[in-house]
Specification:
The protein has helices at residues 30-42, 74-77, 88-104; strands spanning 58-62, 83-87. With 106 residues, the chain is α+β, with helices and mostly antiparallel strands. It has a two-stranded antiparallel ribbon. The chain starts with 29 loop residues before the first helix and ends with a helix.
Length: 106
């Protein structure tokens, strides 16, 4: 486990470098679900990008991307200042347009 300068994530995750963060079990932890629910309340079920009320699927998104290297970094993984509520459309645009832009550069 990596050392922390602030609060430390309390869970041990299964990190397989060939798989994504979703496969570590992070999003199934009680700690994540608690923070996720707090963000839903804070943002009043309104997308922080398009500002429309969310009535369907949503994502509590990490502004600074969560990676295998940052799973134990409180400021990235659990800090409410690094989390935002997005409707699925805005999340997909943010996530996949970034990847497409990266691919198009090569």
């Amino acid at each position: 486990m990596k050392a922390q300068t602030k609060k430390q994530a309390t869970n041990d995750y299964i990190v397989d470098p060939h798989k994504g963060v979703r496969d570590t079990g992070f999003y199934s932890t009680k700690q994540w679900k608690t923070v996720r629910d707090e963000i839903k309340l804070r943002d009043k079920m309104t997308c922080t990008m398009c500002h429309r009320p969310i009535t369907g699927r949503y994502i509590v998104d990490h502004i600074k991307e969560l990676t295998h290297e940052t799973l134990y970094d409180y400021d990235v993984a659990y800090n409410p200042e690094n989390l935002q509520l997005l409707c699925i459309e805005c999340h997909n645009y943010k996530t996949f347009s970034k990847r497409e832009n990266a691919k198009s550069r090569w």
